[in-house]
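User: Hey, quick favor. My workstation is busy. Could you predict this chain's structure for me?
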Amino acid sequence: MRYLTLLLICLAGTQIALAQQPTDPNAELKNVVMPQVRSQDTTIRRIMEELQKIQASDQTNSSAIQGLLQGREIDNITKYQLIRNNIVYASETYYLLNKKIIDLKSRTTTNNLDVFITSLNNPESKELGFSLSDRIVELVEKVVLKGKKDKNDDKSNKIVESTKSIIASPIFQSFTSLTPPLAIANSVMNFLHSVSINNKEINQQTLKDFEKELNKYVVYYTALNDANNKFEYGLNFNKDQLNLLHDNLYDHIMFTASALKFTLPQRGNKSLGETLNDFFFDFKKEKVVLFFDDLENKYTKGKKVDYEALLRENPNLKEVNNQLEDLVMQTKRFENLYNEYFTLLDSYYGKVASALKIAQDNGLADKSTIDAKQSEFRNLKDEAVKEIQASINIKELYNNTDKIKYRYRIF
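Assistant: No problem, here it is.
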């Protein structure tokens, strides 16, 4: 507009100068031949049109710029809300995952199931209608001594009393590689072999016959022992993996707590579970919500939050958000270990049931007794599953984790 004003002033000056010049007799003819004013009017009109185009373009550009600025502001709000919601939900996920890891690590089976298995493996127990201790003594009297035992037979009496002494020895309760029944059977066989050296009435055939009958029990207890050992090994492996997962969770919590300027959990001499339980008195969902409320207040200008400045000056929030995929993967890992535990229980039940079938096939117990015990064990196993499922409540963890939009990275 400034240039247009100057142009108009110049044109006006030219017109005044022409008006002030002496009258020329040929002036009218010159005006007809040289249409200067009309040319000047066309130039002004063209200039005005160009200026109008420039003004229209400026308005369009201004609107576009305002739209971009508004879009950028909306984008910052969206980014911030995503980060805030994700971290708030993550704080609850940390708490739930820690709680459920501790619960699953503490599991072996249930008290009722443990009592059942311990009873089956007890040489004094008559859960299947016989006591191994009594059966071994009976086999010694019947097979080894061939029913010749009487009060006046010192050798026979000594063998029987020594056998009873071996069975009653408390040392077998401390065996870890073998169950007491298997340890007792091995010790009795070794004892009889040593006695046979000086007792001509106990020959190799007698020992073979005794071992054959004893092996019917040994095979049963070996199968039971194998079931127990494999279940224990599986549980220990499961716990090792849970311990590793717990350590990873601790590291992730340390990273997030540091980014949010919370006091970091210090392990010291305490267990990891105890350390994190104490930490969650402070680092919990309500406190994380309060952290973001305070942050928004800090960046409020007038009645509006400056989200762009908030995100720019707190890049640690983006880092926490972008690491949440790892937390979600940890919950998936826990889910796998949780399911593996029930797979272990199913396998354990199958092996114990097979051991009981061996007892039936070897004539150690009748079919009705074995069927009753298998049914009892199945019910105890099902009760254990329901108890653990109710205690851990894996769906609670699923529902909370699903709220974390971990696939959206913020840069």
